[in-house]
Amino acid sequence: MNPWIMATRPKTLPAGAGPVLLGLALAYPAINAINAILTLFCALLLQISSNLINDYYDGVKGTDTEERLGPPRATALGLIRPKMVKRGFLITLSLAFILGIYLMILGGTPIVIIGLSSLFFSWAYTGGPFPLSYLGLGEVFAFLFFGPIALYGTWYLQTFTLFPTTNVLLVGSAVGLISSALMGVNNLRDRLGDKSVNKHTLATLLGDQLMRKVILLFLLLSQILMIFVFKDKPFSILIGIIPLALFSKTWFSLLGTTHGKDLNNTLATVGKYLFLFSVLYSSQLIRISS
Predict the structure, then answer these.
(1) How far apart are CA 287 and CA 28, in angstroms?
(2) What gap in Å lies between CA 287 and CA 237, rounded to an integer?
(3) Rounded CA gap, 2 and 75, in Å?
(4) Which DSSP symbol is given to 257?
(5) Dihedral sign (CA 275, 243, 158, 183)
(6) In contact, 184 and 202? CB cutoff 8 Å
(7) Is residue 168 predicted with pLDDT exceeding 90?
(8) Nearest to residue 22, comparing CAs of 245, 222, 269?
């Protein structure tokens, strides 16, 4: 695999695209195509930036080693020089900012706050003197920025309604919980390696077995929240639950039989689940709005 593609970690991109799709579906039929495309590009660029920043800082800090269980990291393995990875994330952050200028002008103060804080926390997650991912806050920020904040920003740029509706909060929280599960599986896989270098994650704090239960709880809660959104639409709930049932074997194995590098497949499955969850529920939100 091309080392640059490896460093961007394409399997995590549904975390950036999912809340945008759902936000657009909640705004339907009041959709502005230019705003929608720019919002999606900005979200994906921020996700890629975060991945490159993570690759760079964990590489130069020595957190990632050759014993790493996850997919190979370009910086740690010397596949790309650290200064080139740094240049890469500076370029993607700059592109996100440039594209976001139009959206910030259009959306005013709420989008300025969301846009600038998203740029900052993409860096602060792994960079800076107090990296958030080293303080057990990875799942919290994954929930916020790939859940309610991203979805509200998308919805606001279509509706220009300042205060979010109940459904915006519920759907944003649901997709945020899946992003937290995605982060949780990543940290569960790396738990022992992170512990050895004093990187504190939710997995190192809770331990192996409890972390597995928390991940499954995140996934179940994501569906429970959607029941409240579609409380009078049982068909829509059945459609949305399809991916949860489709990957049931993975969820059962997560309870104890999946370890080490096998968790890479679990991580990929959660990414697929997030994508299907977003697409199927978006289709149902659009259907009932038509």
Answers:
(1) 10
(2) 13
(3) 13
(4) T
(5) negative
(6) yes
(7) yes
(8) 222
Long-range contacts at 128-137 (CB < 8 A, ≥ 24 apart): 131/57, 133/54, 133/199, 133/201, 134/199, 134/200, 134/201, 135/200, 136/200, 136/201, 136/202, 136/204, 136/205
Most confident option among 2-11, 70-79, 206-215, 260-269: 206-215
- Domains, the chain, in order of start with CATH, read 3-289 (1.10.600)
* Predicted structure pTM score: 0.92
Mean pLDDT of the chain: 90
Taking CA atoms, 111 is separated from 20, 140, 193, in Å, by: 14, 21, 38
- Within a 13 Å sphere around the CA of 98, how many CA atoms are in the beta-carbon half? 7
Buried b (16+ CB within 10 A) or exposed e, 99-117: bbeebbeebeeebeebbee
What tokens appear for 139 in the block? 């799942």
Q: Read off the tokens for 16.
A: 């950036």
pLDDT on residue 78: 76
